[in-house]
Amino acid sequence: MKKMILLFFVLLAVTFLSSTVMAGTIQIPTEKIITEIHSYANGATLIYSPASADGNGCSGPLASSAVHLDWSTDPNMKAFFALALTAYVEGKTVGFGVNGCASGYGGEIPKAYRIDVAE
What we know:
Elements: H1 2-22, E1 25-39, E2 43-49, E3 66-70, H2 77-90, E4 93-104, E5 107-117
Antiparallel strand pairs: 1-2, 1-4, 2-3, 4-5
């Protein structure tokens, strides 16, 4: 009986944690073309087209058509930047996983944690 109760609480905790982690994440479909790249010391902003239907959880004039890669907090984002550059040069369609917002461009833009490139 104790094992059943322990299993119940473990499953409850896993369910709670997984819903908490996924609550703020949004997937931008792999149908976007990167039209501009702005690179800075601490990150880069990718502008894409066509714009999304909403602000992807952020508010600002470019929230529907831009994502930010922040390598000041995650150096692995530099690899994502290399992938974005390759997609830009080759004209490949891309999609993004976003979670949270970064300040910039007169408001907020989504922060990317993932880039998908289509064939």
